[in-house]
Amino acid sequence: MTPQQRGHELMMGMMRPTILATFVLSLACSSDGGSGSGGDDTSEGAADVTSADGGGDDGGPQPASSALDDAFDGPLRGWSVLHGDEADVSVSGGELHIEPHALSLWFEAETSVLVYKPVLGDVIVDSFVRARALSDGAVPPAPPYRLGGLMVRDGGVAAENYAFIVVGADDTDVSIETKSTVDGQSEFQGPPWPSGEAVLRICRIGARVRLLARGADGAWQERAAFDRPDFGDELQVGAVAYANVDPADLRVSFDAIRFRAPMAAADCTD
User: Which CATH number does the domain housing residue 137 bear?
Assistant: First the structure.
């Protein structure tokens, strides 16, 4: 993106309403309570979301492993939701669905919905992600700024510090966007991508964070890599979506989210 497009995204973020819409979780289950981790407020409204620690059986952050995997074949459990009042979050058909509300945005100090688990240390997280128009599930969302994918975020500090890789509609076309935000200052790029779906991956080894994507049958492509020595050992890892436009007209679906701990850099692309 050009600096002018970057300025446009920031300007759009400043136009967001100050009154947030009601958070709706669509699964009909009983409610579990909880408080946010890392100093963040989490919004939880139904039992398809567990207590806000979201860390599994021991109630806290865990090292990355398949024990954190979710195939979304039942109620959403073991996850926390940040800013749940900015999206409708549901599980159906073996997928996690996020429908962000209008004028939601992850950029600079602006934050939106994140469905996450707290993970300790090095991690590989991946998911097959589809971004579709809510009004027509057969087509990708229309520009501008309707995207969703995977994020790692340090929730234990006051300023925004995260990295993500998302697919959907950028400023002018369908793209995969990568972004790294350090103390509320965002660096991003969004080159074109041939469709509104991709297998997305984040690989964190030490301070190095690699953002990767591939088609359903293709090889991994490194779309960006960042050195993030500022990240703490514990990160919020999971699914993100936003629509910095009105109407939002976006549904982002995740066909399982899987976790593991990398043993070497080669694991990022195996």
Answer: 2.60.120.200
